[in-house]
Amino acid sequence: MTRKTIKVDLLARVEGEGALKVVLHDGKVQSAELNIFEPPRFFEAFLRDRHFTETPDIVARICGICPVAYQMSGVHALENLLGVTVGGPLRDLRRLLYCGEWIESHTLHVYMLHAPDFLGYDGGVQMARDHAEAVTRGLQLKKVGNEILQLLGGREIHPINVRVGGFHRAPRKRELAPLAERLKWAREAAIETARWVATFDFPERERDYTFVTLKHPSEYPFNEGRIVSNRGLDIEAADYDAHFEETHVAHSTALHSHFRDGGGSYLTGPLARFSLAFDQLSPLAQEIAREIGLGRECRNPYRSIMVRAVEILYACDEALRVIEDYEEPDRSFVAVEARAGVGYAATEAPRGLLYHRYHIDDAGTITDAQIVPPTSQNQACLEEDLVDFVGSFLDLPDEALRHRCEQTVRNYDPCISCATHFLRLEMDRA
Fold first, then answer.
1. Is 99 part of any known ligand binding site?
2. Could you give the CA distance from residue 119 to residue 292 in angstroms, rounded to a whole number?
3. Could you tell me if residue 301 is left (phi over 0), alpha (psi between -120 and 50 degrees) or otherwise beta?
4. 66 carries a ligand binding annotation
5. Helix residue ranges, H only, 60-172
6. Is the overall model pTM greater than 0.90, yes or no?
7. Mean local confidence (pLDDT), 50-66
């Protein structure tokens, strides 16, 4: 009888502070735990007793990589509560802002966090010594996403131009013209990115995931849609709490999400969106996906880097469409008035479904808030990947096995918070 424990005390190349522990027993994985030990950040509590109009600026502080997702889920939930619909060019500007976030967030992950796993480097800096052209392309591509956030959001990190009902200021059409030129370059760079990552060596591992994503009748999912799954789920965001629940686990300060009534784990994010909304990608994104060997769905989490590259391309295409069609609105926002009630919304952060719920009173004061980020929703599924996959890698040397465990975590691009740390590994072989 043999027992081995793989411990990664500080996961590298993830956004935040986490650790990994995998226990092996008689050649099988006995347990796998993603230990998130960052203390709770209490943002839901910060929102209580604040006026609802403060929400976009408060929730943007949750994440420096995907602040737009938090802002969009927040304003959509409050507009749902207030009975307001934002359409026309303001709605399109929101999609454009989301395009910027997807470009910068996915590109950061593809080039600096995940590609080193496949090319055998400790990180992007080390990789740049041998792959300077690719890393330069990645940095320039990320910069284009940041430029969209700068123009529409007022700044690249923690945007300040979003408000309930629209924007504090809408851009002039002539301001978008330089972005279009940059995006034409970015679109070509995204194609090069997809072809580049398709040359990597991928472990052939798949699972029969329960995919959960937003689904819109005519658009690849960003801001709006019903919450659907490949198992028949089809609900409004208002019904989220009736179908999903969060629970505490001893090894993590982050909650784990599951289907209620023992329905198990589920997967949100690029693989779910791609597999359930392939037909709504732009024609070019579909063409490149087929060219690099992706089918209409993808169940291999190690190939998630390919799907993210295709989503970068889609975001460039969609941003160019919005800019081409843009007509300056008469007013940069729709007026809103406070009223008591509860509002719900879900949007698609780069890493997956992001759910918000708010209660406000007649004065517009927030009395309760709930935020369920994609990393919480994916944690149980991630640990199941480790249990399923790591057992087939046990013939690897310790260092390679440790690397494969970390790579399995990084398939998800977990956003624990915004930091990068070093790694120390402890491994006991019986």
1. no
2. 18
3. alpha
4. yes
5. 67-82, 88-107, 115-119, 124-130, 132-153
6. yes
7. 93
